[in-house]
Design brief:
The chain has 431 residues and is α/β, with parallel strands linked by helices. The chain has 3 domains: 4-253, Type I PLP-dependent aspartate aminotransferase-like (Major domain) (Aspartate Aminotransferase, domain 2, 3-Layer(aba) Sandwich), CATH 3.40.640.10; 257-342, Aspartate Aminotransferase, domain 1 (Alpha-Beta Complex); 365-425, Molybdopterin biosynthesis moea protein, domain 2 (Alpha-Beta Complex). Helix content is 32%, strand content 13%. It contains 14 helices and 13 strands. It has helices spanning 4-15, 51-63, 74-88, 102-110, 132-135, 177-180, 200-203, 224-231, 238-253, 257-274, 298-307, 330-342, 365-368, 408-416, and strands at 67-71, 93-97, 114-118, 140-144, 162-165, 195-199, 211-215, 279-280, 286-290, 314-315, 319-323, 373-377, 421-425. The strands form 3 sheets. It has a 7-stranded mixed β-sheet with strand order 1-7-6-5-4-2-3. Strands 8-9-11-10 form a 4-stranded antiparallel β-sheet. The termini are far apart.
Amino acid sequence: MSTPICDFLESYSFQRKLRLHMPGHKGENPNDITEIFGADSLYDSDDSRGIIAQSESMAARIFGAKKTCYSCSGSTLAIQTALALLKARGCKTVAASRYSHRSLVSAAALLQMNIKWLYPKEYLSADVTYDKEALRGADALFVTNIDYYGGTWKHFRPGIPLVVDNAHGAYLRFVDKKKYGTEYLHPLELGFPLMSAESAHKTLPVLTGGAYLHFAAGEDSSRAKEMMAMFGSSSPSYLVLESLDRFNEVMAGDSDTITRACDAVMELKERLETAGIPLVKSDYLRIVIDARACGMSGYEFAANLRSSGVECEMSDANRVVLMFSSANKIEDFERAEIAILFVRRKSPIAPEKYPVIKPAVHMPVHEAMFLPQKIVPLKKASGEVCAGLNAPCPPCVPLVMPGEIIDHNVMAALKQYGVKRVAILDRTKTV
């Protein structure tokens, strides 16, 4: 398989031209260029002759998509684009998993779209099921395919346009389903029209920011680039584009590389469980440890790993999340195993309970986010209206939304997650 972006960058570097164009480092990193002659333009790459368009077409073929658009700004840009396309089709209200990434909330606010929440049983869980009442009046549905703990949503055909935040699940397209079954499916394997936003950089060997917006068969993609240009930088990184292009070559040369990585993770899970390490059920490239069953918080368990030279993806009061990819070597799995087993376990302690809160709504998100606000200590926020997104990364998932009332349940939840200050509507400036 050809690599048109990589080939162009290599050729341009070889020519050693005087670079009287951006960027200002003038070739210190020779593959970091701008939209010069022959380099194509990310948001105008529908011309099949362009190198970016050629590479996107190859990615679409690898994933089995009708069309694929590259993003250099992660799934955030892909989600913004998807919602803008919905808006252009007349969508006014989107039903969404309550614990969606903040990019959904921000995009809906900017586009003045209403959100109807579908609630799961647990904070951060993607496990939302078909809810006829919640979907009534919605013009589209937004779901998360894999959550931070490796859970997934129950796949169903909503009967309305579907956008899937598959940021953590790009690799699923290349997993051997005969070996691992169909509990975890790539959205393009569902068999109906949808848009799927995917962070290649999370689970594939791609630079940070590299992502896709895939369109399944039957989904209208005609204005995708136009909408992407509304939100994306006019100076996308060619280093990121190069890494996306290179991944096409990797998969064309060794299509089993992802399955082998999954095998290594699943084998490590088996060894850890045999050794008595309590694990939480998760997807094929993630290990989630029940730290409380080991007698400590997730933060403490993560600190123990850190002292052994292992940095985890995320930790909270209950769990530790470790993420792997096809770029991990055999010694990486051995090193992780040793570090985990080295943690001195104690008597189990009760898990922290994180109740799902359903705050009362004072006004729509898209109104509250643009009204005057002020930052106050949490203890002074009782009865006030939330005006901002308290969503540290990771997991970048808000607990309370702008426009919702901060009651005692909300305050308790925010305190539990360590939030000390919140943005509220400034009533002195709000009419």
